[in-house]
Write a structure and sequence with these properties.
The protein is an alpha+beta fold. The longest helix has 24 residues. InterPro entries: YXWGXW_rpt (IPR024447).
Length: 107
């Protein structure tokens, strides 16, 4: 009887390992604090939006700061979230500095 209990406890412990790893892998990533940049972003590029795509919203391209300068990130499709609308990311001035406001879904 003690052997069966021991095997049962080992079985429970072995089942907890994958569950624990799955829980750790699915933890949310928290937003990074804003990075303030003293150099204004370049003017927006003209980007041709592809034709409509059912179930998706177009997220326009934007400039991203890469430590030493701005790099253009082309636009892409965002899957639609029902009961919400997409607010695209944008650069915002704060005094002489600039910071990036991430795009997000708003209700």
């Amino acid at each position: 009887m003690n052997v069966l209990r021991s095997l049962f406890k080992w079985r429970q412990a072995l089942l907890l390992v994958p569950l624990t790893l799955a829980a750790l892998a699915s933890t949310p990533v928290f937003a990074q604090p804003p990075v303030y940049i003293q150099q204004a972003p370049p003017p927006m590029r003209m980007e041709v939006m592809p034709g409509p795509r059912p179930g998706y919203v177009w997220d326009q391209g934007h400039w991203r700061w890469e430590g030493r300068g701005y790099v253009w990130m082309p636009g892409h499709w965002q899957p639609v979230r029902y009961n919400a609308h997409w607010r695209p990311g944008h650069w915002q001035a704060r005094g002489p500095n600039w910071y990036w406001v991430e795009g997000h879904w708003a209700r």
